């Protein structure tokens, strides 16, 4: 596989953020599918800019193969308001003429297919860009990239503003249609696992590379921590619980590339279940009584659009509910009705007398900018009871990724992601017994999401989550309901798989885990997993070949040193046995892929 981008001892820093990368050396192959992960502020977006050469390193060198075409989707996008959708997607208003549209996508029908897949079925190609929302503009720009030919596609948070179906469609498009190398930053862990064959972790001013998707990376982190005898018990336990979830999850996850599986099994052999649902339900009933929310014959509108039509629905103590539906289905409207911010057109919403609601909206709430972060938390509570744990304000801040030094930062100086974390932190500090989260994963990195999930595992209250983050939904909720546009709240015993199968007018993307009874969809999932595993095995064989060549050279150089020769020969025999096993695995996988 040809190397097309090289970073050689690269360093990069900024005055306010400090040094982000130091002495980083990396190579990108033409067939790589790279997911970049790390804490907010670690340097993920900076790494993308260096790869694209939109920023120069302070030290070291970034080298591109000659005539390399790199297409990027940045987090911030400026498009002239007077141009049309067609100008952006097919014209040169945004991308220059060097990026030609792929022939099969260049016509109106091809463009329409992509726009529909990204959740914009009603948009007109001659519509002006000016009135479009920021989310619509990003999806239009993403469509422009998908229909064009490039050598490297770099995407910064491509799943933002996509619903679950759109994320599944994009994952399927990347795995089946994309012909270029891919580097992306996303907080969506399901998406990372669905499309990526390697993970680059940005941390401690360096970048570590791992084979496999999010599940393999999680296993690798624990294995690395075990080898290094990490003493941070809280972090170790959190990662082990994450592995237990991955291993006990849907078949689509457990068929991902397996990393050091024996070591991983030893690590999780004594891990308890993610949640003790019975105990939590008992505690929730004690705190909440029998009634939380009762909707009786409710009709609800969002503007002129009818969301609910004479609906009766009950939410009980300890319920952990996922609220699903496409963008514009009315999920936020329903949540606002539950919190009393919006009154129904008819019927009534009854709330239990002991209910204490915390509602995380999609908007950044007003925060006390003249206070330091820790003071803003202590303004709500100095000590917090979360399940059977009592945490100080400082400990709760640490759970959300705020270190000792960061807790003394003024709120007005926090980034958007940090303000989002603080908003959620203050809600939990108030010790509610009903928690309503509307798109809680916005601006949160994967480590913070894992910490939030760990906290919610022991939270004995009623939880309602509206989110397009499939991983989070499956991780923290136990039952699913959907708004499918028919004026009802539909219970989905099959969860997200059933939602995708039942969504009106939406085909289930092949990249998503299928409904269990769908044998054809299951085969598609198995085929995709086999292709990813095949790439991993080929990479491992390539590394073994390199090592074998070095061993043969060492044997020749040390021909007269019998002890050295014996040691090298033993190592060579071990390597050859490993290669033989990998070659058998490759043959099996290649047969599966060819039959698919």
From TrEMBL:
The keyword ATP-binding applies. Pfam families: ABC_tran, ABC_tran_CTD. SMART domains: AAA. GO terms for molecular function: ATP binding. Keywords: ATP-binding, Coiled coil, Nucleotide-binding. Residues 5-229, 293-512 form the ABC transporter domain. SUPFAM superfamilies: P-loop containing nucleoside triphosphate hydrolases. Residues 527-585 form a coiled coil. This is ABC-F family ATP-binding cassette domain-containing protein. It comes from Hamadaea flava.
């Amino acid at each position: 596989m040809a190397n097309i981008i090289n970073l050689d001892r690269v360093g990069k820093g900024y005055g306010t953020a400090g040094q982000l990368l130091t002495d980083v050396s990396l190579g990108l192959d033409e067939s790589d599918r790279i997911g970049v992960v790390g804490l907010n502020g670690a340097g993920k977006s900076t790494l993308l800019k260096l790869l694209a050469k939109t920023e120069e390193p302070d030290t070291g060198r970034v080298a591109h193969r000659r005539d390399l075409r790199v297409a990027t989707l940045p987090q911030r996008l400026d498009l002239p308001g007077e141009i049309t959708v067609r100008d952006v997607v097919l014209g040169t208003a945004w991308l220059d003429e060097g990026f030609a549209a792929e022939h099969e996508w260049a016509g109106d029908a091809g463009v329409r297919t992509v726009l529909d897949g990204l959740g914009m079925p009603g948009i007109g190609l001659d519509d002006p860009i000016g009135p479009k929302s920021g989310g619509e503009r990003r999806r239009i720009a993403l469509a422009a990239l998908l229909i064009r030919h490039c050598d490297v596609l770099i995407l910064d948070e491509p799943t933002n503003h996509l619903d679950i179906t759109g994320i599944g469609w994009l994952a399927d498009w990347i795995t089946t249609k994309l012909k270029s190398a891919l580097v992306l930053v996303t907080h969506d862990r399901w998406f990372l696992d669905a499309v990526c064959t390697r993970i680059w972790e940005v941390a401690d001013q360096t970048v570590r590379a791992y084979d496999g998707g999010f599940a393999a990376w999680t296993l690798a982190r624990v294995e690395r921590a075990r080898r290094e005898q990490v003493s941070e018990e809280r972090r170790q336990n959190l990662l082990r619980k994450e592995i237990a979830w991955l291993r006990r999850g849907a078949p689509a996850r457990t068929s991902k590339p397996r990393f050091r599986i024996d070591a991983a099994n030893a690590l999780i052999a004594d891990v308890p279940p993610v949640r003790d649902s019975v105990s939590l339900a008992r505690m929730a009933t004690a705190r909440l009584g029998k009634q939380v929310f009762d909707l009786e014959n409710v009709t609800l509108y969002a503007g002129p659009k009818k969301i609910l039509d004479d609906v009766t629905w009950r939410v009980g103590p300890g319920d952990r509910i996922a609220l699903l539906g496409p963008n514009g289905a009315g999920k936020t409207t329903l949540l606002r009705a539950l919190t009393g911010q919006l009154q129904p057109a008819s019927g009534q919403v009854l709330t239990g007398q002991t209910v204490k609601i915390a509602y995380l909206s999609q908007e950044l709430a007003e925060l006390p900018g003249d206070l330091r972060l820790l003071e803003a938390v202590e303004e709500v509570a100095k000590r917090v009871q979360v399940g059977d744990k009592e945490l100080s304000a400082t400990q709760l801040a640490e759970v959300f990724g705020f270190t000792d030094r960061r807790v003394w930062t003024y709120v007005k100086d926090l980034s958007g992601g940090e303000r989002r974390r603080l908003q959620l932190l203050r809600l939990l500090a108030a010790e509610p017994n009903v928690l309503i989260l509307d798109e809680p994963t916005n601006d949160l990195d994967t480590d913070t999401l894992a910490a939030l999930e760990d906290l919610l595992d022991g939270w004995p209250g009623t939880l309602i989550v509206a989110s397009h983050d499939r991983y989070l939904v499956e991780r923290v909720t136990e039952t699913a309901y959907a708004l499918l546009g028919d004026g009802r709240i539909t219970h989905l015993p099959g969860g997200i798989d059933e939602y995708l199968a039942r969504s009106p007018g939406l085909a289930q993307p092949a990249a998503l885990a299928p409904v269990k009874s769908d044998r054809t969809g299951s085969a598609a999932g198995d085929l995709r997993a086999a292709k990813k595993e095949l790439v991993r095995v080929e990479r491992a064989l390539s590394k073994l070949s390199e090592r074998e060549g070095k061993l043969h050279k060492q044997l020749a150089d040390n021909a007269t040193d019998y002890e050295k020769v014996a040691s090298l020969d033993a190592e060579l025999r071990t390597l050859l046995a490993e290669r033989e096993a990998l070659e058998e695995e490759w043959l099996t996988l290649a047969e599966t892929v060819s039959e698919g």
